[in-house]
Design brief:
The protein contains 6 helices and no strands. It is mainly α.
């Protein structure tokens, strides 16, 4: 079987996409369960699992981007040409996720860590921890992230324009 470099890189790009999405789904499920819990011991047991998924998401997101760009180059696909905008649109959408990290996830994560530390000192789920778990900006960012990832997958599969 003769496999070209372009085919191999596309395969790696798709595999990285599965890795990334698997991490997102795992993190979403575990954090959702922790968010609904009123037992601090359960929350403390779930958060390390969510952190493991986060450690899949971060390099997975970078791998998807880098391998996607390499796949585009290996296939000699233009980014700015009629009929190829299905490549440009997902790239722009994907890049729109990057500001979520410094603008929402990092600062709100520090607030969450502070609330979690306070809850651990008190030995109970505090109102501040519950509020941090239900932060509307983080909820918006997670929803936006899910919608964008879904749109990117749809554009990459359907190639509509």
């Amino acid at each position: 079987m003769d496999v070209s470099l372009a085919t191999f890189v596309v395969f790696l790009h798709v595999a990285a996409g599965f890795w990334f999405v698997g991490g997102l789904l795992g993190r979403w499920i575990v954090l959702g369960r922790a968010r609904r819990s009123d037992d601090l011991r359960e929350i403390d047991a779930l958060l390390p699992a969510a952190d493991r998924f986060e450690k899949i998401v971060i390099p997975g997101s970078a791998a998807v981007l880098v391998l996607g760009l390499i796949a585009m180059w290996a296939q000699d696909r233009p980014l700015f040409e009629d009929g190829a905008y299905w490549l440009l649109a997902p790239l722009v959408l994907y890049l729109s996720l990057i500001p979520l990290v410094p603008l929402i996830f990092l600062p709100r994560g520090r607030v969450f860590e502070s609330a979690l530390g306070d809850a651990r000192q008190r030995g109970t789920v505090t109102p501040e921890l519950t509020t941090a778990f239900r932060d509307p900006w983080v909820a918006f960012a997670r929803t936006y992230e899910a919608v964008i990832v879904g749109l990117v997958i749809a554009l990459m599969v359907l190639k509509p324009f």
